[in-house]
Amino acid sequence: MEEKQKGLTLIFTGNGKGKTTAAIGLTVRAVGQGFSVKFLQFIKSKGRSYGEKISLEKLGVEMIQLGEGFTWTKTPEVHRNALESAWKVAKETVMSGKYDVVILDELNNALAIDSFPIDDVLPINEVKELIQTKPPHVHLVITGRNAKEEIKELADLVSVVDVEKHYYDEGIPAVKGIEF
Q: Structure pTM?
C-alpha cells in the first residue's frame, strides 16, 4: 500500500470570486486520484439547491450545508447554534481520519463574524488546535473571506483571490450555474 503524504493545510481567502470554486476544483482533482473527500459548508443553508452539491454527489463526495445562510437573514442565536453544531461536525470529520481531504468552506467567513459573539461556539483557539493536531495524512482546506492572520500562519499555502472587476457592480445579481 502506498504511504500517505503529509497532509497540508490550504487557505483560499480574499474578496474575489472563486474561493469555493478553487476548493471544488481541488476536490475533483483529489477524487480523480482516489482520495476520499468530505466538503462542509459553514454559512450556506440546506434550504437552497447548489450546483456544486449536485455535481459532487455524482462523484461520490458528501457535501453538507451546515449554516443558516447570510448572517442578516436570521437571528444571531439561530446562527450561533448552527455554527456551534457545524464546528462539532467539522472537528469530528477531520479528527476521524476517514478522509484524505476535508474542505471547511466559509470557515473564514464564520470566524470573521463581528455582528454577534461567536468565539464561545466557534473558538479560534480550537481551530488552530485542529490544524496543528489533525491526523498527519489529512489535507485540510479552509475557504472564505477575511482569513485570520493566526490561521494563515499555520497554513502551508495561502491563496488570496482578489477582485479587479465584478458584474455585481453593474447590478447583475447572482447567476445560476456561476454562483450557485
A: 0.93
Distances (CA, A) of 122 to 53, 83, 91, 162: 24, 7, 11, 26
Determine whether 87 is an active site residue: no
CA 153 from centroid of its chain's CA atoms: 17
Residue 158 buriedness (CB in 10 A; 0-12 / 13-18 / 19+): middle
- The answer to whether residue 19 is catalytic is yes
Which residues are registered as beta bridge partners of 38? 62, 102
Is 52 annotated in the active site? Answer: no
Q: Is 70 a catalytic residue?
A: yes
Per the annotation, the verdict on 98 as an active-site residue is: no
Active site residue 152: no
CA distance 131 to 152: 11
Model confidence over 54-85: pLDDT tens digits? Answer: 999 999 999 999 999 877 778 889 999 999 99
Using a 10 angstrom Cβ sphere, with 0-12 exposed, 13-18 middle and 19 or more buried, the burial of residue 40 is: buried
**DSSP code for 39:** E
From 9, 12, 93, 106, the catalytic residue:
106
